[in-house]
# Entry
Amino acid sequence: MNDFTRQTQEFLSAAKDARIPEQVQAIAEDSVTKARETYDKFSTVAKDGAKVFEEVAVAAFAGAKSISDKVLKNTENNTEAAFEAAQSFARAKTLPELLRLQTGFVQQQFATAGAQSKELFELSTKVAQQTFESLNTAATKTFDQIKKAS
# Structure
């Protein structure tokens, strides 16, 4: 048997009877318990935070969808108006009548475009404000939960 093997066996033999002090065991158990509690708190905060931010994302998507729906509706209305105008242009009997119809259509489209732009701006502002408020509320709630968990 070589020297290293003999020393290893002697060490293991001596360690076999060694006892860990109760204070060290208590500290180790307490540390594990506190680590588990901290993990559980932060895990709950993380899960709650994920739910809150998911809700914010869903709300933002709903806002984007409402804007998209409005743009689509405006496009449909404008296209329908263009077809109606084209049909009235085709029925015009004289050049002055055609010019009058065309001028009226262009004026109407400028007014419509202005109103649609205003509506889209107001809707976009409202959606952005709601999204920002939701995000701000979510962030505040998450940070408050982190403070409480710490």
In short: Residues 22-91 form the longest helix (70 residues).
